[in-house]
Each structure stands twice: as structure tokens, then as C-alpha cells.
Amino acid sequence: MNRWDMIRSKAQQVHETLAARAGNDRTPQALLSAASSLTGIERFPLPSGDPLLYGAAEAVLHTGAIWYNADVLPWEVLFFQAHEFSHHWLHSDICVCGDCRMNGEASEDELGFGVQRVEGYGPHERRELEANVFARELLLPTDLLRRYFLTDGKTAAEIAAFTGMPEGMVCHQLCRGLLGPEPKSISGQGTVDTKPLDPSQQKAALVEEGPVLVEAGPGTGKTRALVGRVTFLAGKGMHPEHVVALTFSNKAAEEIRTRVGLVAPDFARKLWVGTFHSFGLEILRKHGSRIGLSPKPAVVDPIDAIDLVEVSLEELNLSYYQHLSEPTFYLRDILGAISRAKDELAGPARYLGIPAL
Questions:
Q1: What is the DSSP letter of 275?
Q2: 109-146: string of b/e by CB count within 10 Å (b at 16+)?
Q3: How far from the centroid of its chain's Cα atoms is residue 81's Cα?
Q4: Which of 58, 224, 259, 280 sits between 20 and 30 A of 234, alpha carbons compared?
């Protein structure tokens, strides 16, 4: 069970606890009232821009209270409160949340194409996304929606009217409940990997001081070594904001975060874990202005790249690559050559001087 499954499962358990406390009333209003009764956290509506909202925040969790903007849509009032309760159950600290971070339809799933393969989440963005997922599952648990839809015959519009949540959020949850994998119990979340590191992995993970360059091929246990390295640093008292764990795939990055979270959950929440590409993009977005880049540099995904090359074919004058019956036949090979040149840091002048193989 990965971190997202654990969050959804925990939210479903909390939902059941709150519903029982509310006499099986599963409306968001009843669930939130039960949450206040259970946690002792009071809720205070405020006008937009109130000083207690730090000027621009939509909701704040602080010292046993939730302050929230009441000048928004009715469903947002409910979701913002659920979002702050989610921080209480997941992160147990002070949170100041803006509207741009509280998205009831934001997906935690990494898409396998386009710019989504590159973009990643820093620790703060990750916490907000976790609270979004928890709040959505708390108010609209997928197992309950599945029952409403399949057994009771309710449509998404009817469920939205009953719960007061937007139809788009209901559809999001219904799609996961009907088309996604069967829900897992939090009791099956898995155990810490207790298999000891082999000597080569220990040599990489237990270095007292860095930086360290480790070369490892496929199947050598790079992810386990990285997990061992991060947990070793956590045990040495290293501050999590001073540690960056980078890998080659989003799947491996999620595995690192999940495994570290089982050993050191507080450390994992503040750790920056992601791919080399997402980390590089993060650096360019934060500091790219120093080399003349915009604050949001564009990332060209494979589909956009094919379009760019296709419209430029005539001016490229690549007569050798002309394919009369299918002009785009060689575009993938051309993009492969461009990608290899980028890997080798070969600009146009150097590329022209590379002898043919």
C-alpha cells in the first residue's frame, strides 16, 4: 500500500468514526460538527481578507482552531474546513492554506505523458495535495459513492445535490470507486523492509559525510540503498529540509517516500523526493531568472515536440529524411537525435562537427 492508498484508507476510517458520532448522518455539515466534537478544534467563519486569515489565506489551522473564509461558495466553505481537519489528522501542525492549494478535484496520480512526467511536488505542495485527497475521501468516500451509485441507483448529480459537493468532485470520486482498484484496508499497508543492506549498499548508504557519487547498474538495489541513506541521515539528526533524494522515475520516488514514511514519517513529510528532471525544473523555476529564463519556463512534451518538428520540416531541408507517403515517418528518429545531443550538451555548432557513425 503506497502513501496515497494509506491516506484514502485512513480518511475512510475517520469518516466512519465521524458518521457514527453523528448518528449515521453522513452529510458534510454533520461530519464537520462531529470532527469538532471529536478533536476539540473549534471553527470560526470570517470575512474574506480578515487579519486572522493572514490577509490572503482561505483557511488556517492554528492552536486548536480553524478559521475559514465564509465569503466563498457553500461547498468551498465545507471543503476548506475538511482540508484543515485533514492537516490535523495527517500533519498535526500549523497550516495556512490559500485557494490555489485547496483543490477538490486535484489528482494525486502521476500521468505518464506530457509535462506531468517532469513536474514534481516539493514538501509543502505535497502536504497540500495530501490534505486535498484526505478531505475529498473524508467527505465523499469512494466505497460509499459506489454503494450510492450501484445499489441505490443515484446519479452523480443526485449525489452532488445530497452532499452539497460539486458534481465534478463527485464524478472524480465515482471514477476512482468504479474504475479503480478495489479499496485496501489500512491494516494491509505493509511493513518496513527489514532485509539488511548488502555490503555494497551499506557502503553507499552509511557514509558519514558527503557528497558521494555512487555508480550502480540495473537490479543492484538503488532504491533500497537510497532509502537506507535517507534513514541513516534521519537517524544522525540531519534536518529533512537539508536532504534531497533524487531518482530516475516517479514510481521509484514514490516508493522512496513511502518506505521512509514507514520508518520516519515526520522526516518523510518534509523531505524533497523526486526525479532528476523534476528537481531540475524546480531549480529553473526558482532561480532561472538569473540566466534570463521566465519564472515559468515552458516544458515541451513529446506531442508538442513532434508538432514543432513537423511544421519546420521544409525549412530544415532534410532531404535524406523525406518520406513521400508518410512525411512524419522519421520524426521520432529526428527527436531521438535531438534528445541525444541535449544529453551530450552538444549545441548546433558542436553537433555539426560530430562525425557520422
A1: E
A2: ebeeeeeebbbbbbeeebbbbbbbbbbbbbbbbbebbb
A3: 21
A4: 280
Facing residues of 65 across strands?
Answer: 42, 62
Residue 285 · residue 119 · CB < 8 Å: no
Strand partners, 67: 44, 60
- Write down the pTM of the prediction: 0.64
Query: Are 329 and 313 a contacting pair, CB within 8 Å?
Result: no
What does the alpha-carbon distance between residue 238 and residue 225 come to, in Å, rounded to a whole number? 17
Which regions of the chain does DSSP assign to beta strands (E)?
Answer: 42-46, 59-62, 65-69, 95-97, 244-247, 272-275
User: How does pLDDT run along the chain (357 residues), one tens digit per residue?
Assistant: 677 888 899 999 999 999 999 999 999 999 999 999 999 999 999 999 899 898 788 999 988 899 999 999 999 999 999 999 999 998 876 777 765 556 666 555 544 444 455 555 566 777 888 899 999 999 999 999 999 999 999 999 999 998 999 999 999 899 888 877 665 554 444 444 557 889 989 988 998 877 777 788 888 888 888 889 988 998 888 898 888 888 888 778 888 888 888 888 888 878 888 888 888 888 887 888 888 887 777 777 777 788 888 888 778 777 766 776 776 777 888 888 888 888 888 888 888 886 655
The answer to whether the peptide bond before residue 211 is cis (omega within 30 degrees of 0) is: yes
Question: Among candidates 257, 259, 254, which has minimal Cα distance to 270?
Answer: 257
Q: Are strands 59-62 and 272-275 parallel, antiparallel or unpaired?
A: unpaired
Cα separations (Å) of 160 from 17, 130, 149, 155, 171? 22, 22, 12, 9, 9
* Burial annotation 1-40 (CB, 10 A radius, 16+ → b, else e): ebbbbbbbbbbbebbeebbebbeeebebebbbbbbbeeee
